[in-house]
Amino acid sequence: MVGKICGTGSYVPPRVLNNDDLSKIVDTNDEWIRERTGIGKRHVAEAETTSWMAGQAALRAVEQSGIDPAEIDMILVATSSSETVFPCAACEVQKMIGAAGAAGYDLNAACTGFVLAFNAAQAYISAGFCRTVMVIGADSMSNMIDWTDRSTCILFGDGAGAVILRAEEGTPVYMAAHSDGEKAPSLTGLSRHRRGWVEELEEGAEKKSFIHMDGQGVFKFAVRKVPEVIEEVLEEAGSSLEDIDYFILHQANRRIIEAVAKRLKTDVSKFPMNLEEYANTSAATVPILIDEMNRKGMLTEGQKIMLAGFGAGLTWAATLFEW
């Protein structure tokens, strides 16, 4: 048995900060940010918490799928920015959607988190342990960045995305995952869970940087490792690049995605992007993009979809499945 997606959902906060808004906080401008990242704006949580956003995305996935939440056997939430260490965000989602019979836990692998959680869900279904699994990626990156640090604050946004997998007979799902703790210093983060950062900035409060990133190092890592893991999965599946309808990659930087497409010698049109609207929402980027594509009618039965995530750890993973 394999997990087939029967419903998708997403949520992003209504508050928007565009690049011009950031230019009032740090020394930057719209042209500079767009040229280097492809980002035009980001959605930023105010009263919303990570688990609440995850719950909203889950509710929308349930509504689209038409299933009874009581049918859900497990809830997996990929996040590195939950507002509480415990209870886990998955238990908060369970309560919000009324999935009384579901087990649940959180998975922290930063920006790779959703792909790894998706793989875990497929493994549970393949083993016969679960029939219906909710997989969510949710992050509040605005709680983890120094809004006076131009090198990081321009990159991130907040949001959540969810998919529901149901056990069906179908084409096998192929997966690969890796990590390299030796290179962990390339991208590290410490969370702060407090609001009112705009007011604090206006008051000139002293800030600390909670995300540290070697931008060039992370760029080189992603451009090298993402094509490698995609080719690894293709070899396992006995498929070719031409067989893939869409490559849905973590939305970190337009230049990274374009470089991956170039290295794979594949038309960039097969690599959908929405980071201009949302920036990097960490574990939420892939499921938000899946939900947008699904609701636009871009995804049809039988298409071959490749997911790929990469991020802190360092971690990277890919999955090939049939829609």
Produce the secondary structure layout:
Layout: E1 2-11, E2 16-18, H1 19-22, H2 30-37, E3 41-43, H3 50-65, E4 74-78, H4 89-97, E5 103-107, H5 113-126, E6 132-140, H6 150-153, E7 158-168, E8 174-179, E9 187-189, H7 197-203, E10 211-213, H8 215-237, E11 246-249, H9 254-263, H10 275-278, H11 285-295, E12 304-311, E13 315-322
Parallel strand pairs: 4-5, 4-6, 11-12
Antiparallel strand pairs: 1-7, 2-3, 6-7, 8-13, 9-10, 12-13
Distance between the termini: 14 Å
Structural class: alpha/beta
Largest beta-sheet details: 5 strands, mixed
Beta-strand residue fraction: 15-25%
The coarse overall form would be globular
List the total number of helices. Answer: 11
What's the total count of β strands?
13
Biggest sheet, strands in spatial order? 1-7-6-4-5
Helix content: 25-40%
Radius of gyration: 19 Å
Q: Order of helices and strands, N to C?
A: EEHHEHEHEHEHEEEHEHEHHHEE
Mean pLDDT: 94
Query: Which stretches are low in confidence, meaning pLDDT under 50 for 5 or more residues running?
Result: none
Quick description:
The protein is 34% helix and 24% strand. It is an alpha/beta fold and 323 residues long. Helix 3 crosses helix 4 (89-97).
How does this structure look, described?
With 323 residues, the protein is α/β, with parallel strands linked by helices. It contains eleven helices and 13 strands. The strands form four sheets. A five-stranded mixed beta sheet has the order 1-7-6-4-5, sandwiched between helices. Strand 12 (304-311) and strand 13 (315-322) form a beta hairpin. Helix 3 (50-65) crosses helix 4 (89-97) and helix 8 crosses helix 9. It is globular and about 55 Å long. The mean pLDDT is 94.
